[in-house]
Write a structure and sequence with these properties.
With 117 residues, this protein is mostly beta strands. 0% of the residues lie in helices and 59% in strands. The protein has one domain (18-116): Jelly Rolls (Sandwich). InterPro entries: ChrR-like_cupin_dom, RmlC-like_jellyroll, RmlC_Cupin_sf. Pfam families: Cupin_7.
């Protein structure tokens, strides 16, 4: 789509949280909203993830790196605590897991699909 109408590119705040299911695996306690779907890659590259208290995402690799912004709550990546307002850039092939004790909502930009390890 090569529209010059900015309204064609806005994601309105009316999307519903969906359970995070990747390759048939349901990650309990994690919900997702897709903000940008890349048709060429056939996957979402910008997402919101909401983690309930105690939820975790397994150890994985980011072949294309990632950007992460904590919208609320607290997340733990490799024993480092990220709080509301913290931003993290990880370079290509950076590996980590994500856990939370009390819950959090995170904005992710993930140029390439993650690899669960």
């Amino acid at each position: 789509m090569n529209s010059t109408n900015i309204s064609d590119y806005i994601v309105r705040n009316n999307k519903e949280w969906q359970p995070l299911i990747e390759k048939g695996i349901h990650y309990k306690g994690i919900s997702v909203i897709s903000l940008h779907y890349d048709a060429a890659k056939q996957r979402s590259t910008t997402i919101l993830l909401k983690f309930e208290s105690g939820a975790s995402y397994p150890y994985h690799n980011h072949p294309g790196g990632e950007e992460l912004f904590v919208l609320n709550g607290t997340a733990v990546l490799e024993k480092v605590i990220l709080n509301h307002g913290d931003y993290l850039y990880t370079p290509p092939n950076f590996k980590h897991s994500v856990t939370t004790e009390k819950g959090c909502t995170l904005l992710f930009v993930i140029p390439e699909e993650v690899e669960i390890l």
